[in-house]
Amino acid sequence: MYCLQPFLPNHYKEFVAMDISEAMLEYAKNNINLPNTRFVECDVGSKDIDDEFIEKFDHIFSFYCIHMIENISQAFKNLYNMLKPGGQMFLTVMEYSLADVAFHKLSKIPRWEKYGKQTTVSPFYYSESPKEEYIKLLQDAGFKHYVLETESIDFELGGEDVWQKLCIAINPLLPKISAEELEDYKLDYLNQLRKSRSFSFNNNNSRITTHFKMFIIVANKI
Protein backbone atom coordinates (compact mmCIF):
# COMPACT_ATOMS: atom_id res chain seq x y z
CA MET A 1 0.00 0.00 0.00
CA TYR A 2 2.83 2.41 0.79
CA CYS A 3 4.09 2.05 -2.78
CA LEU A 4 0.90 3.77 -3.92
CA GLN A 5 1.14 6.71 -1.55
CA PRO A 6 3.35 8.93 -3.76
CA PHE A 7 0.83 8.56 -6.59
CA LEU A 8 -2.32 9.30 -4.60
CA PRO A 9 -3.89 12.77 -4.83
CA ASN A 10 -3.40 14.99 -1.81
CA HIS A 11 -7.07 15.02 -0.89
CA TYR A 12 -8.52 11.63 -1.77
CA LYS A 13 -11.80 10.84 -0.02
CA GLU A 14 -11.09 7.25 1.04
CA PHE A 15 -8.62 4.42 0.50
CA VAL A 16 -10.33 1.02 0.83
CA ALA A 17 -8.05 -1.96 1.46
CA MET A 18 -9.75 -5.27 0.67
CA ASP A 19 -8.69 -8.84 1.34
CA ILE A 20 -10.40 -12.19 1.80
CA SER A 21 -8.25 -12.95 4.85
CA GLU A 22 -9.25 -11.55 8.22
CA ALA A 23 -5.75 -12.26 9.53
CA MET A 24 -4.15 -10.36 6.65
CA LEU A 25 -6.40 -7.37 7.26
CA GLU A 26 -5.56 -7.41 10.95
CA TYR A 27 -1.86 -7.44 10.09
CA ALA A 28 -2.37 -4.50 7.72
CA LYS A 29 -4.27 -2.51 10.35
CA ASN A 30 -1.42 -2.96 12.80
CA ASN A 31 1.38 -2.16 10.35
CA ILE A 32 0.04 0.37 7.86
CA ASN A 33 -0.86 3.95 8.60
CA LEU A 34 -2.32 5.70 5.57
CA PRO A 35 -4.76 8.60 5.95
CA ASN A 36 -8.46 7.91 5.30
CA THR A 37 -7.97 4.15 5.03
CA ARG A 38 -10.71 1.60 5.66
CA PHE A 39 -10.06 -2.15 5.86
CA VAL A 40 -12.75 -4.44 4.45
CA GLU A 41 -12.98 -8.23 4.41
CA CYS A 42 -14.21 -9.12 0.93
CA ASP A 43 -13.92 -11.97 -1.56
CA VAL A 44 -13.62 -10.21 -4.90
CA GLY A 45 -14.40 -13.53 -6.61
CA SER A 46 -17.79 -13.81 -4.91
CA LYS A 47 -21.13 -13.30 -6.64
CA ASP A 48 -22.33 -11.39 -3.58
CA ILE A 49 -20.40 -8.12 -3.58
CA ASP A 50 -21.96 -5.60 -1.22
CA ASP A 51 -24.02 -2.97 -3.05
CA GLU A 52 -21.99 -0.34 -1.22
CA PHE A 53 -19.05 -1.09 -3.52
CA ILE A 54 -20.89 -1.04 -6.87
CA GLU A 55 -19.65 1.89 -8.97
CA LYS A 56 -17.80 3.22 -5.92
CA PHE A 57 -14.17 3.46 -7.01
CA ASP A 58 -12.31 5.87 -9.26
CA HIS A 59 -9.25 3.59 -9.21
CA ILE A 60 -8.66 -0.07 -8.35
CA PHE A 61 -5.18 -1.50 -7.80
CA SER A 62 -4.11 -5.11 -7.32
CA PHE A 63 -0.58 -6.49 -7.26
CA TYR A 64 0.40 -10.18 -7.59
CA CYS A 65 -3.00 -11.31 -6.35
CA ILE A 66 -5.75 -11.77 -8.95
CA HIS A 67 -4.20 -14.92 -10.44
CA MET A 68 -4.76 -16.66 -7.09
CA ILE A 69 -8.55 -16.18 -7.16
CA GLU A 70 -10.41 -19.38 -7.97
CA ASN A 71 -13.42 -17.74 -9.66
CA ILE A 72 -11.37 -15.33 -11.70
CA SER A 73 -14.08 -14.69 -14.29
CA GLN A 74 -16.43 -13.44 -11.58
CA ALA A 75 -13.60 -11.38 -10.10
CA PHE A 76 -13.09 -9.45 -13.34
CA LYS A 77 -16.83 -8.81 -13.63
CA ASN A 78 -16.86 -7.53 -10.06
CA LEU A 79 -13.89 -5.25 -10.68
CA TYR A 80 -15.69 -3.77 -13.68
CA ASN A 81 -18.89 -3.25 -11.69
CA MET A 82 -17.01 -1.72 -8.74
CA LEU A 83 -15.47 0.99 -10.92
CA LYS A 84 -17.31 4.23 -11.50
CA PRO A 85 -17.92 5.14 -15.16
CA GLY A 86 -14.63 6.69 -16.23
CA GLY A 87 -12.76 4.72 -13.57
CA GLN A 88 -9.54 2.81 -14.14
CA MET A 89 -7.92 -0.33 -12.75
CA PHE A 90 -4.25 -1.27 -12.67
CA LEU A 91 -3.36 -4.93 -12.11
CA THR A 92 -0.22 -7.01 -12.08
CA VAL A 93 -0.84 -10.74 -12.42
CA MET A 94 1.56 -13.61 -12.88
CA GLU A 95 1.28 -15.77 -15.97
CA TYR A 96 1.67 -18.76 -13.65
CA SER A 97 2.16 -19.01 -9.91
CA LEU A 98 5.71 -19.83 -8.88
CA ALA A 99 4.37 -22.97 -7.23
CA ASP A 100 2.11 -24.25 -10.03
CA VAL A 101 4.47 -26.97 -11.19
CA ALA A 102 4.87 -28.25 -7.62
CA PHE A 103 1.11 -28.40 -7.07
CA HIS A 104 0.68 -30.23 -10.35
CA LYS A 105 3.35 -32.81 -9.57
CA LEU A 106 2.24 -33.34 -5.96
CA SER A 107 -1.29 -34.04 -7.18
CA LYS A 108 0.13 -37.08 -9.04
CA ILE A 109 1.73 -38.55 -5.89
CA PRO A 110 -0.67 -41.02 -4.22
CA ARG A 111 -0.02 -39.67 -0.74
CA TRP A 112 -0.91 -36.11 -1.73
CA GLU A 113 -3.40 -36.56 -4.55
CA LYS A 114 -6.29 -36.42 -2.06
CA TYR A 115 -5.58 -32.71 -1.67
CA GLY A 116 -5.99 -32.17 -5.41
CA LYS A 117 -4.81 -29.23 -7.47
CA GLN A 118 -8.08 -27.50 -8.32
CA THR A 119 -7.74 -24.65 -5.84
CA THR A 120 -3.98 -24.26 -6.01
CA VAL A 121 -2.75 -23.94 -9.57
CA SER A 122 -3.22 -20.67 -11.42
CA PRO A 123 -6.45 -20.46 -13.42
CA PHE A 124 -4.67 -20.75 -16.76
CA TYR A 125 -1.77 -23.05 -15.92
CA TYR A 126 -3.04 -25.59 -18.45
CA SER A 127 -3.86 -23.00 -21.11
CA GLU A 128 -1.76 -22.62 -24.26
CA SER A 129 -2.07 -18.82 -24.01
CA PRO A 130 -2.77 -17.31 -20.57
CA LYS A 131 -2.42 -13.85 -22.14
CA GLU A 132 -5.34 -14.48 -24.47
CA GLU A 133 -7.34 -15.84 -21.53
CA TYR A 134 -6.86 -12.58 -19.63
CA ILE A 135 -7.83 -10.55 -22.68
CA LYS A 136 -11.04 -12.58 -22.90
CA LEU A 137 -11.71 -11.98 -19.20
CA LEU A 138 -11.40 -8.23 -19.75
CA GLN A 139 -13.72 -8.30 -22.74
CA ASP A 140 -16.31 -10.55 -21.11
CA ALA A 141 -16.35 -8.31 -18.03
CA GLY A 142 -17.24 -5.32 -20.21
CA PHE A 143 -13.92 -3.53 -20.67
CA LYS A 144 -13.50 -2.04 -24.13
CA HIS A 145 -10.41 0.08 -23.50
CA TYR A 146 -7.45 -1.76 -22.03
CA VAL A 147 -3.73 -2.43 -22.40
CA LEU A 148 -2.07 -5.73 -21.47
CA GLU A 149 1.70 -5.95 -21.58
CA THR A 150 4.04 -8.82 -20.71
CA GLU A 151 7.22 -8.41 -18.71
CA SER A 152 9.81 -11.08 -17.87
CA ILE A 153 10.99 -10.79 -14.27
CA ASP A 154 14.17 -12.09 -12.64
CA PHE A 155 14.13 -11.24 -8.96
CA GLU A 156 16.82 -12.07 -6.43
CA LEU A 157 15.24 -13.33 -3.21
CA GLY A 158 18.27 -13.76 -1.01
CA GLY A 159 19.14 -17.02 0.72
CA GLU A 160 17.52 -20.31 1.68
CA ASP A 161 15.55 -18.99 4.64
CA VAL A 162 13.87 -16.22 2.64
CA TRP A 163 13.12 -18.65 -0.19
CA GLN A 164 11.47 -21.18 2.10
CA LYS A 165 9.34 -18.50 3.76
CA LEU A 166 8.16 -17.28 0.35
CA CYS A 167 7.32 -20.79 -0.83
CA ILE A 168 5.38 -21.56 2.33
CA ALA A 169 3.52 -18.24 2.16
CA ILE A 170 2.15 -18.89 -1.35
CA ASN A 171 0.82 -22.37 -0.55
CA PRO A 172 -2.91 -22.23 0.36
CA LEU A 173 -3.06 -25.96 1.06
CA LEU A 174 -0.99 -25.99 4.24
CA PRO A 175 -3.90 -25.40 6.66
CA LYS A 176 -5.62 -28.46 5.17
CA ILE A 177 -2.69 -30.83 5.67
CA SER A 178 -2.91 -33.02 8.76
CA ALA A 179 -0.44 -32.31 11.57
CA GLU A 180 1.04 -35.79 11.14
CA GLU A 181 1.74 -35.22 7.44
CA LEU A 182 2.62 -31.53 7.45
CA GLU A 183 6.42 -31.73 7.68
CA ASP A 184 6.61 -34.49 5.06
CA TYR A 185 4.35 -32.48 2.76
CA LYS A 186 6.49 -29.35 3.17
CA LEU A 187 9.61 -31.35 2.34
CA ASP A 188 8.09 -32.83 -0.82
CA TYR A 189 6.68 -29.45 -1.83
CA LEU A 190 10.00 -27.63 -1.43
CA ASN A 191 11.86 -30.41 -3.24
CA GLN A 192 9.51 -30.07 -6.22
CA LEU A 193 10.12 -26.33 -6.30
CA ARG A 194 13.89 -26.83 -6.20
CA LYS A 195 13.59 -28.86 -9.40
CA SER A 196 11.31 -26.35 -11.14
CA ARG A 197 12.29 -23.61 -13.56
CA SER A 198 10.73 -21.00 -11.29
CA PHE A 199 13.93 -20.68 -9.26
CA SER A 200 17.67 -20.85 -9.78
CA PHE A 201 20.19 -21.46 -6.99
CA ASN A 202 23.88 -20.64 -6.69
CA ASN A 203 26.30 -23.25 -5.33
CA ASN A 204 25.62 -22.74 -1.61
CA ASN A 205 22.03 -21.45 -1.91
CA SER A 206 23.08 -18.06 -0.56
CA ARG A 207 21.56 -16.37 -3.61
CA ILE A 208 18.29 -17.63 -5.05
CA THR A 209 16.59 -15.99 -8.03
CA THR A 210 13.00 -16.35 -9.13
CA HIS A 211 11.92 -16.20 -12.77
CA PHE A 212 8.41 -15.50 -14.03
CA LYS A 213 6.33 -13.60 -16.56
CA MET A 214 4.04 -10.87 -15.36
CA PHE A 215 1.06 -9.32 -17.12
CA ILE A 216 0.55 -5.60 -16.53
CA ILE A 217 -3.06 -4.62 -17.14
CA VAL A 218 -4.55 -1.14 -17.34
CA ALA A 219 -8.27 -1.02 -18.12
CA ASN A 220 -10.76 1.84 -18.26
CA LYS A 221 -14.50 1.67 -17.72
CA ILE A 222 -16.17 3.97 -20.21
From TrEMBL:
Describe the location of the Methyltransferase type domain by residue ranges. Answer: 8-90
Instruction: Kindly give the SUPFAM superfamilies that the UniProt entry links to this protein.
Output: S-adenosyl-L-methionine-dependent methyltransferases
Q: Which InterPro entries match?
A: Methyltransf_11, SAM-dependent_MTases_sf
Q: Name one GO molecular function term.
A: S-adenosylmethionine-dependent methyltransferase activity
- Residues spanning the membrane: none
**Under which name does UniProt file this protein?**
Methyltransferase type 11 domain-containing protein
Species of origin reads Diabrotica balteata (Banded cucumber beetle)
